[in-house]
User: Fold this.
Amino acid sequence: MDWKEDQQWLDMVEKNLYPPKQFVFEKEIEKLLKEYDFGNKRVLDYGCGAGKVGLLAKKAGANVIGVDVSEILLSVAKERIAVERLSTQKTGFDDDYFDFIFCFMVLHVVPDPVLVIQELSRVLKPSGKLLFAIVHPFSVSWDENETYSFDQSQYFYKQKRKWTFHLKNNKSFQADYFHRPLSFYYSAFSSYFVINRIDEPTLPTRFFHSKKYAPIEYLFGTASKVVCGDNS
Ligand SMILES: C[S@@+](CC[C@H](N)C(=O)[O-])C[C@H]1O[C@@H](n2cnc3c(N)ncnc32)[C@H](O)[C@@H]1O
Assistant:
């Protein structure tokens, strides 16, 4: 199990070479995290990458552990948060262990998100919260001028696609991801979580050559665990 774009992702994150649209992601994450009290809470950052989001929760008082499949990314993340390497979707944590789980920009890069969602539900406390983000299924393709295009005819197909990151240093790289329609994610979540909220932040049009649209890039959500049992 690996993520082959990890070195390029690391270079982008560590050298602050994000494309402008990435700032929307950062702003949204900061806004979302401010809504919760992380003091002395246990947080799992699943697919933590270089650990930057986990670090925000740590600074807010949480005990954070990041897990990831990438040795390269974990070697940097461990300077920020506690980390463990994953070799399968299964973590070694006890049932009902975490108060919060972050799963930012991971579900669309894994081949079987249902297995991940199931595992996240297992290790989340019944009162816990899952905070997640994916590439929005209505997200756009970019040419080198960052021009908007969305091909509706392909929406319902589950496909491997490429996301292009046009970096500030005029270089770019591509990363594979899985496009899946919204109904796929809804069904994948529904046996394990109740989705409490969905946010669809639009990108500022000033970043794009075409001013006609306010394009969407990310879908953010929060979810609570489905707790089975006697409700009487
Ligand atoms: C797009 S990066 C997002 C990193 C970080 N969560 C963030 O928001 O900055 C995707 C991350 O998912 C990790 N990843 C890929 N496959 C995974 C899997 N099967 N289980 C856990 N993490 C995985 C990658 O190594 C990478 O760190």
Summary: Helices lie at 6-14, 22-34, 52-59, 71-77, 113-123, 182-190. The longest helix spans residues 22-34. Residues 19 and 167 are 5 Å apart (CA to CA). The chain is about 25% helix and 30% strand.
